Structure formats: C-alpha cells, structure tokens
C-alpha cells in the first residue's frame, strides 16, 4: 500500500496542489515585506479562479483567462492598497472586506452570466514538457523523473521562474533592498529618499497579481471548473506557508510544498483508509495550525508589518 | 463658543459615518443595477417597500436580523479586546450542532429545563470552539485570524461528519415520493426544546400577525445578548479589563491585568454569542440541523460589527439593516425573475464595509486636523 501511495504521480500531484498556495504565499511575502498585511489573498484568489474560467469560456482561450485573472487580482490589490496605504485604514478589516466582496461578486456574476454557481472550463492549458513513456518503454526511473519534473502545465514552470526571480529581486537588487527597508523601518527609508507610498502600492498590487494567478491555476488547472467558495481557505493556508517560510520566497515555496504534500496525501487517502472523508478533509487545516504553532519564536515578521506610515510621527 | 459648536459638528459626523457608507454603497449598487439593465428606482422601491412596508415584511427582517445580531456581537466583543475573531462561522456550527443534539436526545425533559439547557449548550459549544484560538493566542502568540479561519473549516467538516452520524431516516412521505438524495439532516428536536414563534405571543395580545412568519423568541434572546454584551463591557470589572487589554495590552499588563486571561475569556464570550445562532435557526425555525442551513452568517457578522462600530446597539441596528437588505434582496430576486441575483446584497455588504472603514479614517483625520487648527 505504501508504494501505491508514495509514487511519482503522488509527488507530481503534491507539486500541483502546492502551486496556488506557493503563488498566493509569495504574494503575501511581497505585501508584508513592504509592511502591508494582506488577508485579502483568499478573495483575490477566488475572484481570479472565477475570472479565469469565465474569460476562458468567452474567449475560447485559456491564456486570455489566466491574463484576466491576473488583471482582476491587480484590481483587487489596488483596492486594498488604496484603503490601507492612502486611507491608512485597518489592514485586516480591508482584507476581510475584500474576501466578503469576492464571495459575493463571484457568485453574483456566475448567476448573471451562466445561470449557475458551478462552471466547467471549456478548454484547458496544454501540458508542456516530455511525454511520459508507457510502462515497459524506457526505465521506471526515467518515467518517474519525467512525471515529476517535465510533464506539467506551463503555469508550473512559470511559477518556478517567478520564485527564482522574486528571490533575486527581493535579496539581490536595490529595488528589493528598498522594498524590505520600507517594511522594516519606513522612517529610515523615507529619509533616504525612498518613496514609501509608491513601494507599498507596487508590492500590494504584485501580491494581488500573484493571488489572481494562483486562482487561475486552481480553477483552470487543478479543478477544470469554478465552483463558489472554491478557494476553501487556501489564501489563509498560503499566509501560514509564508509565516513558516519566514517571509522569504524560497521558504514559502518549501512550506507550500509541505502543504501540497499534506493535501495530496489527504486526497490519496480517501477511500483507501477507514477514516471518514470529513476527517481527511481537515488535514490541510490542522496542518496549517500545527505549522503556525511550531513557527512561533522562529519566525519574526517585518518590523513595520501592518503599521500604516505616518510622516508626522518621528 | 464657536469652536465648541464646530467640535460637536465633527463629533456628529463621526457618529454618522456608517450612514454615509450605506448611502454610498447603495449608490454603487444602483450603478451595478443600471449596468445589468434594470431600473434601480424600481429595485430599491421593491426592496424597501416589501421589507418594511408591512408587518410580514418586518417579521421576516427581524428573523433574518436575529442571527446577525449574534454573529455581529461575536466580532464586536472580541474586537473590544483587540482580537479579530473571524471564526464566528465555526463557533456557530459547533454551538448549534451541540444544542440540536441535546434537543433531540433529552426528549424526556420538560420545556422549562430543556430550553435553557439547549441555549446554554449552544453558548458553551461556541465558547469552547473559540477557546482554542484564544489559548493559542494568549499562551503562544499565534495570530487569531488565521487560526479562527482554519477552525471554521475544521468545524464545517466535523459537523458534516456528525450530521451523517446522526442522520435522520427518510420519512414515509419521502419514501413514497421516491426521494433518494436529500440534504443531510438530523432528527427533529423535542417539542419541549422549541422556541415559540412570535405570532403566538402577538395573538395573545390581540395583534394581527401572519402565523407563517418565522420570527421567534430568539430575537429577544439576541436583544438580551446585546444588552448583556454592553453590560459586561461597560459595567463590570471583567469588561474594564477586556477593554484595557484592547486599548493597550502592555499598559494593561503593567496595571496588573492579566492579558492572557482576558484574551481567553473575551474569545470564549465572543464565541458563546456565535453559538447562540442555533436558538434562531434550529430552536425557533427548522427544529433540526440541516447541512448548510445557515452557511455564511458567521462571516456576515463581521460586516455587521464593523457597520455597527463594534458597539452592541450599533450591532443591533446594523443587523436590522442587513436583515432588510437580505429579505428585500430575496424579494427583488423573485420580482425580477432572477435577473438581479440575491448575491448583489453580499456585494453591497462588502462595499459598505470598505466605505465604513475609509470614511471612518477620513473623518478621524478631519477631526485631528481640526483640533490642531483650533
């Protein structure tokens, strides 16, 4: 039974499940590194998931759907930025409002445009990479390697590129240094001539774009449909991944893979064990709580995380 | 004298920001309605005239406002302690399920025992579920927002498991009609566990009220809960400590107030309010747990609390406003034959929240500037 569960397909599906968590978590990294908490990732993801399927079906082209999901994420990110940065409102409240808004607007348009709350995606993105050889052709090792590394949706490769780039941008460029300084000690950054408002806007909008992309992967690639509330807390699990990953892109990716592993395991265990499916469904959420508790004392958020910047003070 | 007058003006402005936010949100809604190709004047007229134009409408509004008062108090109470409890949804699930279980298990008890027992169980269930994130926050510093959200999903799975475990057998009528699949639900609670509908009381007072209206005694429990929340927060030592922790945990700790104890207690009281949703939905309305009967009420409580400025009186008023929007929205949906989805109301609620938050900040800034100038 062990071998039936932990095989190459399992690893590949762990990666697929981890992608939306990783992308949204990376969105959290950008936003919080600049000092803005983004609880709205969940809603941005949900709206992205809906938009991706809806636009794909109208345009008959999944790429247009993915692009639209990113744009919608940017739009919601902009709303969050205006509320939190320009109006300096409570960031958690603004994020919660975005989540409420997303729950309503996705079902609203889903009724309006399609007359139902579950929409099938008419086309999907292609699979890129090498084709998996049939059993008997080639070695089992090659088959496993191709399944794990080279037989995925283009968005999987895109995610890997995005993570590599994000790591470089955040830690190896002047821009990244400024972004981090804005989240750690904005007063100092301000005296150095860094435009705090501009940096934070860019970071929050980036986080929206990433959450939108995460949503498109969830609906177009993982489920092949949209259904109301399909994000199912993943935006928050992504935040847990971000915390566990110590607010770094690579750490977040690792934590997302851990969650992906947990969720993929939960999916695999359904029907195999005598444990009721409802308890298996709890696994990702229990894992998130466990991870958060164990991250205590090890993970420190950026110093100015969640604090609006007031020029007069200091 | 003049400056005093101006100060009052701004004070008033601060008090009515929710009203401004609601009007702005209704304007946004009007734009959406125009974009759909419907007439906003007709839609709003239908919405309000049906919701508050007659007794039946009012009854329906109060029936829908009742659970929102509970979940609104949940968020508002925790907020006074500086906590953001967005786990009302899960606390409501657990409290309500436990109360339902008591209601269909201890069927031999008389009403004067069973009703209080069910109510207390509902509150205790919510309190227990909220105690977990409370303890994690107080003892380990884990942020309550993510934990309460995770607890919502766990509660949802747990109650789904429980409803299947206690699933009621299909009735003879269902078997005869050939119904195979149905929404999972438990057996009905005992007659002695049911809260009377309002019309039975109004009939007693010779007031004409439709007997099919679902508003029930739970509305008064909700009002009582709001008064209790006010009393605890502003008239007791516990409330003073909770608010002190909310203002400044460090100052409170320095003043000899246990931050950890108050965080846990505030979370538990907050969760107890959420559990009480069961008094309306099960004890006063469906008389059984039905899967997805009240999904989303916990989340709507967040909007209610913010609109009500986290004050019990504000929560009651905001809940009634949302009751009007919810019931009126459902009527509009029927009148326009589904061309206006009722989710428009959800969108309106979110827009209201964003506007409340922004207008609050803007007014606060105006006042601060004003004071500086004066």
TrEMBL record, chain A:
<feature type="transmembrane region" description="Helical">
    <location>
        <begin position="154"/>
        <end position="171"/>
    </location>
</feature>
<feature type="transmembrane region" description="Helical">
    <location>
        <begin position="6"/>
        <end position="29"/>
    </location>
</feature>
<feature type="transmembrane region" description="Helical">
    <location>
        <begin position="92"/>
        <end position="114"/>
    </location>
</feature>
<dbReference type="InterPro" id="IPR001851">
    <property type="entry name" value="ABC_transp_permease"/>
</dbReference>
<dbReference type="GO" id="GO:0005886">
    <property type="term" value="C:plasma membrane"/>
</dbReference>
<feature type="transmembrane region" description="Helical">
    <location>
        <begin position="235"/>
        <end position="261"/>
    </location>
</feature>
<protein>
    <submittedName>
        <fullName>Branched-chain amino acid ABC transporter permease</fullName>
    </submittedName>
</protein>
<feature type="transmembrane region" description="Helical">
    <location>
        <begin position="36"/>
        <end position="56"/>
    </location>
</feature>
<keyword id="KW-1003">Cell membrane</keyword>
<dbReference type="Pfam" id="PF02653">
    <property type="entry name" value="BPD_transp_2"/>
</dbReference>
<feature type="transmembrane region" description="Helical">
    <location>
        <begin position="273"/>
        <end position="296"/>
    </location>
</feature>
<keyword id="KW-0812">Transmembrane</keyword>
<feature type="transmembrane region" description="Helical">
    <location>
        <begin position="62"/>
        <end position="85"/>
    </location>
</feature>
<keyword id="KW-1133">Transmembrane helix</keyword>
<dbReference type="GO" id="GO:0022857">
    <property type="term" value="F:transmembrane transporter activity"/>
</dbReference>
<keyword id="KW-0472">Membrane</keyword>
<feature type="transmembrane region" description="Helical">
    <location>
        <begin position="201"/>
        <end position="220"/>
    </location>
</feature>
